[in-house]
TrEMBL record:
EC number from the UniProt entry: 3.7.1.12
UniProt entry tagged with the keyword Methyltransferase: no
Domain CobE/GbiG C-terminal: 211-326
Top-level EC class as recorded in UniProt: hydrolase
Pfam families hit by this protein: CbiG_C (PF01890), CbiG_N (PF11760)
Gene it is expressed from: cbiG
Protein's recorded name: Cobalt-precorrin 5A hydrolase
Signal peptide positions (record): none
Domain Cobalamin synthesis G N-terminal residues, every copy: 67-145
Region Disordered: start-end pairs: 1-24
Gene Ontology terms describing biological process: cobalamin biosynthetic process
InterPro entries: CbiG_hydrolase, CbiG_N, CobE/GbiG_C, CobE/GbiG_C_sf, GbiG_N_sf
Entry keyword set: Hydrolase
């Protein structure tokens, strides 16, 4: 949804129209305000048209000296269509807590650079990636993204979960950088868990959906992945909207067709290492275990990632390129 009202003072926490705090639980930002000078309004409208279907709200607000302060707390993320220095000077005094502050991503009028300056893991990095579809280079400086690794906040988003104890991510993201964190462990309850300040707790947003487990031959196409998943879902009670995430093996995480498919369907991707998949091996025999020591990827990853750790659809193949199983 988009609005042209640059001076709408009717928004309030009471009307439920906007979040009273920023994206403090690790989920992607959903309500965006583009702050732009009047002369750059055309570019702001182009951004709105491109990103409109990816967010619940995108509003265009004309820039003035107190614009950020006036709308602070109404949006998950601000896109500043301006020099980064302006956005930094006008918001510095408003910043209090990384888990409470709205994310801010600045972009130039030529859409050359998209630069997250606050809340990288809480919406700004995602907005920068979305602006990349318009040609902007996402200049992300958060350590895990700069190193090409998936931080714990990104893992939470991919798994349709949120971070419960945000302060812990300082230590766990350092472990990500050092390649010592390992896969996300799943604990089924009811049970009580005592954790230290170096353990990040992720809580699912919903347990009603399903998980797509998938494997493939090397070089499988985007179209084959999507067609395989849709074919598998058609054999269950679920549709794409009910998919929590797609799961696969670490050895498949760089498959270009897979990455493009999850992006096209706006799904998260979770990868599991060999040891985790061996613990959740599915019922269908797989030659890969004999040849390379890996269990069948599609069933094992569907079981490992799903809430109840059970299959609603055992492995099926598509065009000798992609295998799929569905877990819940």
């Amino acid at each position: 949804m988009s609005t042209d009202d640059a001076n709408d003072d009717s928004r309030s926490d009471a009307d439920g129209g906007h979040c009273s705090t920023a994206d403090s639980d690790g989920e992607v930002a959903t309500e965006i305000a583009i702050i732009a000078f009047e002369r750059k309004r055309g570019t702001a409208e182009e951004i709105t048209a491109e990103l409109d279907d990816r967010y619940e709200t995108i509003d265009i607000i004309e820039y003035h000296g107190d614009v950020f302060e006036e709308h602070w707390g109404e949006y998950d993320c601000f896109i500043g269509l301006m020099a980064s220095g302006i956005a930094m000077r006008k918001t510095a005094h408003l910043l209090e807590d990384k888990w409470e502050d709205p994310a801010i991503c600045v972009v130039d009028e030529e859409l050359t650079w998209a630069i997250p300056i606050t809340g990288g893991h809480h919406g700004a990095n995602q907005v920068a990636r979305d602006l990349a579809t318009m040609g902007a280079v996402p200049a992300m400086t958060t350590a895990s993204e700069a190193a090409g690794k998936q931080g714990v906040e990104s893992r939470a988003k991919a798994m349709d979960a949120h971070v419960v104890n945000g302060d812990s991510t300082v230590k766990t993201n350092l472990a990500v950088l050092d390649d010592t964190l390992g896969p996300v462990a799943r604990l089924d309850g009811p049970r009580a868990v005592l954790v230290g300040n170096d353990v990040t707790v992720l809580k699912r947003n919903s347990d009603d959906g399903c998980v797509i487990g998938t494997g493939s031959v090397s070089g499988a196409s985007t179209e084959s992945f999507i067609a395989a998943w849709e074919t598998a879902l058609d054999r269950t009670e679920y549709d794409v909207g009910a998919v929590e995430f797609v799961a696969t093996a670490t050895r498949k995480e760089d498959e270009e067709g897979l990455l493009a498919a999850v992006e096209e369907l706006d799904l998260g991707l979770v990868v599991f290492d060999r040891e985790t998949l061996l613990e959740h091996e599915g019922p269908t025999p797989s030659k890969s275990k004999e040849l390379i020591g890996w269990p069948g990827v599609s069933e094992a990853s569907a079981i490992a990632g799903s809430a109840e750790r059970e299959l609603v659809l055992e492995k099926i193949g598509y065009e000798n390129e992609v295998t799929v199983a569905i877990g819940r």
